[in-house]
Design a protein that fits this description.
- This protein is α+β, with helices and mostly antiparallel strands.
- About 35% of the residues lie in helices and about 25% in strands.
- The protein is built from 22 helices and 30 strands.
- It has a 6-stranded antiparallel barrel with strand order 8-9-12-11-10-13.
- Strand 15 (about 485-495) and strand 16 form a beta hairpin.
- The radius of gyration is 33 Å and the shape is globular.
Length: about 800
């Protein structure tokens, strides 16, 4: 074998192999091959310059063995991992594990997987850039130290808390603060007046109707009624018409951030779905590298796009532009995200990849096309009483596209139609409406708008946005809303040209929809408050952004990673040590709601292990306190005593089954249910446990019995069951499950076999982190001398 080229992705390897030919064998490391030992709290030697020990990931030992064999058979080894910090770190770890010389091993980088780009990279190899490696290591060490030391504090002190991270915590804080802004918002009511107008001339067409609006809003219904009264029998005349040309320019090509924002708003993609589809397109050679904050395009790309626009749309549509990024830390060495072949209209792949490719292609094409030309018209309209006194001034605005330019690709703006009008023209108002409107609170974040906010604050980088969002959702701190809003009433007064009096109508409309928006869960709010009070720097926006700038400084070779790590860790660790004195009860955000009239005991709302809950009584009482879920839609801050008391009427005894077993209705962690013995049947929405009837509960119980019978293979006297599950047959004793091997027929499993399977099944993984309560160093573990591990100083 002459040349061995190693990349991190099997899909990338397959694409590259097609272009390099027989002289190269292309192998994949399948991502990182080494890791900081996840269970070793001494893997980072804080006292020795943050020297870090790495070990080969157990799941990658086979890959490493195959790569070592391939290296022995090769005349030359090339490392071709991605061109960002993470890719550079993977290349360095490969060199360390495979015994390659870091100073001489050929390292190539390219931002698109095309034959031309690969050939250029092979002709211009470099060596591993240790500045990028040091920046990646510093970030990894920083995040590991925060997670390893802060997460155990969160588990111990924050009910329901799972973890806290250096970058995810400020993102959570943003969502929590926005929700509180919305809760504190007091809407202001006004009345907006509009009129459906048309020309009074004999040759006016019915389809030439347009809308005009009063040039100011009115504060009260009385003011609106007075105005409509004054407009009874009014004459309407055009007072002025102004027309001026305007242009609209296209947006720059996509960066990682703007791609995630647009894919979220236009396609409904999450940040994770966007990056997954983008990575597949990159590895297939369809687009350039998808982690970038540059808006620049290469000279070759600019030329190819310009030629394509001229050929397909014509000379007047072409306008070459080179965008520059205003951000000081932007990686301008990278290109914006663009198609590798602008003429390719379809990228192949799945539906998500195709939709994203069209979005990228259209944005790229539009960026190199002429501005759209528009004509904007503004019309002033006076409404006068019979004596000629003007009582109101209305305005109408219109917009017409005179040259579509880039809109030819992105979609034409429909504009706002206005017929041709001139000063002095007489108009007819078919109907005038004064509708009550309400000012809106700040908008909740979507995934796209949160990414934009993080970018604006300088928090995170192109490679981290999707991970940040996925983490705060996966931990249960934030959820994506599904609500369609609540009904509210709005008053509308109307005056028709054919009526002699004002009509009043109360309309119903929806407000406060949160579908697709990010909402904090109660645990997320408590955690954010906890971190802000006790670990302010972790959630401080400026501090987090400054840390990102320091990492960029390390990447440029201008800052020492040890200094940065030490400056962060010393005060941070002092806060961890002080955390032992934090009172967990004070953190749980307990609110006393009122007294139970039956028992005289206090009912309170607080955060528990699984989220917000109600508590009747206290741990100091002779009887144990009772617990209940919060009513649907209520929060700790909003739940009322009446609603809380209703929750304590559960479980509700409905009656008995035919064989005398009690049937109860209740609400659990996963929603409302009917219970008979140890069997639970979900109550479907919109039904609830407070109103469900005995007959309906028996129906649900019977359906659940039938479903259980269909999945049950056998039940032994010991209580062990053989069941058919979603992922295949398994055995269970009610506490522990064990998968039945594929070569065993579940109908033949005996009780002894089932018991043996359960005994041999692996125990559930427990969290590996431990809380450091002392600065005293623990004895080194034997694993430190394990083959494939290595100390590495940043």
């Amino acid at each position: 074998m002459k040349n061995l080229l190693i990349v991190e992705s099997p899909a990338k390897a397959r694409t590259i192999e097609r272009y390099l030919g027989a002289d190269f064998a292309v192998k994949s490391s399948v991502g990182h091959i080494r890791q900081i030992p996840p269970k070793d709290e001494n893997a980072i030697d804080v006292k020795n310059g943050f020297a870090t020990r790495y070990e080969v990931d157990p799941s990658k030992k086979k890959v490493v063995t195959e790569l070592k064999k391939a290296v022995k058979d090769a005349d030359a080894v090339w490392l071709a991992t991605d061109e960002d910090r993470e890719g550079e770190a993977i290349a360095w770890h490969l060199a360390e594990v495979l015994g390659l010389d870091v100073d001489t091993t050929k390292r190539i980088a390219f931002n698109e997987i095309t034959k031309a780009a690969l050939q250029h990279a092979v002709k211009n190899p470099r060596t591993i850039d240790m500045r990028l490696v040091h920046a990646q290591q510093a970030r990894q060490i920083l995040d590991r130290l925060v997670g390893f030391e802060l997460s155990p504090v969160v588990w111990k002190k924050v009910p329901g808390g799972k973890s806290a991270g250096r970058v995810q915590s400020p993102a959570l804080r943003l969502v929590v603060e926005r929700e509180r802004e919305i809760a504190a918002f007091q809407p202001e009511e006004t009345f907006k007046v509009s009129a459906d107008m048309r020309s009074s001339s004999a040759d006016a067409q019915p389809d030439e109707a347009f809308k005009a609006e009063l040039d100011h809003s009115l504060a009260t219904e009385d003011a609106a009624h007075d105005l409509l009264t004054a407009l009874l029998g009014a004459s309407w005349t055009v007072s002025e018409v102004s027309t001026k040309p305007s242009t609209r320019n296209p947006a720059p090509p996509f960066t990682t951030s703007t791609l995630q924002q647009d894919a979220n708003s236009r396609l409904g993609f999450s940040a994770r779905a966007t990056m997954s589809a983008a990575q597949a397109l990159y590895q297939a050679g369809r687009i350039t590298y998808m982690r970038t904050d540059s808006t620049q395009l290469s000279k070759v790309a600019l030329s190819a796009i310009s030629d394509y626009v001229r050929e397909v749309f014509g000379e007047k549509y072409a306008q070459t532009r080179q965008y520059t990024t205003k951000k000081a830390n932007a990686q301008e060495a990278h290109e914006a995200i663009r198609p590798t072949n602008i003429a390719l209209e379809e990228a192949g792949g799945n539906e998500f990849e195709q939709k994203l490719y069209r979005l990228i292609r259209n944005r790229t094409l539009a960026s190199q096309m002429a501005a759209a030309e528009l004509e904007k018209t503004s019309v002033g309209i006076d409404a006068a009483e019979s004596g000629g006194t003007v009582v109101a001034h209305f305005k109408a605005k219109g917009e017409a596209v005179t040259f579509d330019g880039f809109l030819r690709v992105t979609g034409k703006s429909e504009g706002k139609y206005l017929p041709r009008l001139a000063a002095g023209d007489v108009l007819t108002a078919d109907i005038v409406r004064a509708k009550q409107s309400f000012s809106k609170p700040p908008a909740r974040y979507t995934e796209g708008s949160l990414v934009k906010k993080l970018e604006d604050l300088g928090i995170g980088r192109p490679s981290t946005y999707a991970t940040i969002l996925e983490t705060i959702k996966a931990r249960g701190y934030v959820k994506v809303g599904e609500g369609l809003g609540t009904e509210r009433q709005a008053i509308e007064l109307s005056l028709s040209s054919t009526a002699a009096e004002i009509q009043r109508e109360v309309l119903s409309e929806r407000s406060g929809a949160d579908k697709g928006k990010l909402l904090p869960n109660a645990i997320g709010e408590v955690l954010s408050d906890f971190l802000l009070e006790h670990f302010g720097k972790i959630v401080d926006y400026d501090f987090t952004a400054h840390t990102e700038e320091e990492l960029d400084c390390i990447e440029r070779g201008q800052c020492d990673p040890k200094d940065m790590l030490n400056d962060f860790y010393t005060p941070f660790h002092a806060l961890i040590t002080a955390a032992a004195d934090i009172d967990r009860k004070a953190v749980s955000k307990t609110r006393e709601i009122g007294t139970d009239p039956k028992t005289g005991k206090m009912i309170s709302a607080r955060i528990g292990r699984f989220g917000p809950m109600l508590q009747l009584g206290s741990a100091d009482d002779e009887e144990k306190p009772r617990f209940a879920n919060l009513p649907k839609g209520a929060t700790i801050d909003t739940v009322s005593l009446e609603a809380a008391l209703e929750m304590f009427t559960l479980p509700r005894l409905l009656g008995q089954t035919g064989d005398g077993q009690d049937i109860k209705a209740n609400i659990g962690r996963f929603g409302p249910y009917v219970q008979v013995g140890k069997l639970y049947a979900s109550i479907p929405a919109p039904e609830d446990p407070f109103t469900i009837t005995l007959d309906r509960a028996r129906e649900l119980y019977a359906a659940k019995l039938k479903a259980e019978a269909e999945k049950t293979v056998a039940i032994f006297d010991s209580g062990i069951k053989v069941l058919r599950g979603r992922y295949g047959p398994y055995v269970t004793d009610g506490k522990k499950n064990a998968t039945i091997p594929k070569d065993i027929d579940p109908t033949t499993v005996t009780e002894d076999q089932a018991r043996e399977m359960i005994e041999n099944a692996p125990a559930k993984k427990r969290r590996a982190y431990t809380l450091k309560t002392s600065a005293k160093k623990a004895p080194a573990k034997k694993a430190a001398t394990k083959t494939g591990t290595k100390k590495a100083s940043t």
